[in-house]
Amino acid sequence: MKRYLRPRMRTPVSVAVMGTVVAAALAVSQGWAVGIVIEVVFVALAAGYWAWGGKDTDVGAVIGHRADERQASLEMKVTALQGKVMTGAAVVAFLVATVVRAVVWPFALFVVLAGLSGLAGWVIYRERGDGHDDGAAAEHAEPPVRARPGPRSP
Q1: Domain encompassing residue 6
Q2: Crossing angle, helix 7-30 and helix 32-53, to 10 degrees?
């Protein structure tokens, strides 16, 4: 999809497609009125992303897929924070569901998914030790030679 769409259109089109899927699922389960309302909301959201992606700001550059290294680093930090918050929320929801004796398996699914994705991240992004990582062996290097202090003068 990336090759066929202009960078500024990638996020809005993704939001619109996701909205259509959600609207179709809700139309089947809740009725056409709910599906149409959800579709209108997602179309408005996609239009908002399109407008925001054209602005000359950090967020606009990220949404418009024209981010520089600093903005890409910021996006990575924001995504990491989102993942941490969602993982914490899944654990808290699991504990609350356990305490009130509610149905636990949906919350347990997210807790297990968070754990497995964390494990996969450690495996994928680990330092391989093959000499390609900058400073990967720095912690195993020998300490620098210390000079003896000279004689003290009174």
Answers
A1: 1-67
A2: 170
Q: What pLDDT is stored for residue 143 in this prediction?
A: 57
How many Å apart are CA 70 and CA 76, to the nearest integer? 10
In terms of domains, do 56 and 3 share one?
yes
| 122 vs 147, higher pLDDT | 122
Dist CA 40 CA 67 (whole Å): 29
Q: How far apart (Å, rounded) are the C-alpha atoms in residues 65 and 116?
A: 29
pLDDT score at 134? 47
Tell me which amino acid residue 81 is. L
- CA-CA distance, 123 to 116, in Å (whole number)? 11
Question: How many separate domains does the chain show?
Answer: 2
Q: Is 73 domain-assigned?
A: yes
Residue range 79-85: average pLDDT? Answer: 87
Query: DSSP alpha helices (H): ranges in the chain?
Result: 7-30, 32-53, 58-63, 69-99, 105-124
DSSP structure class, residue 108: H
pLDDT over 80 at 147, yes or no: no
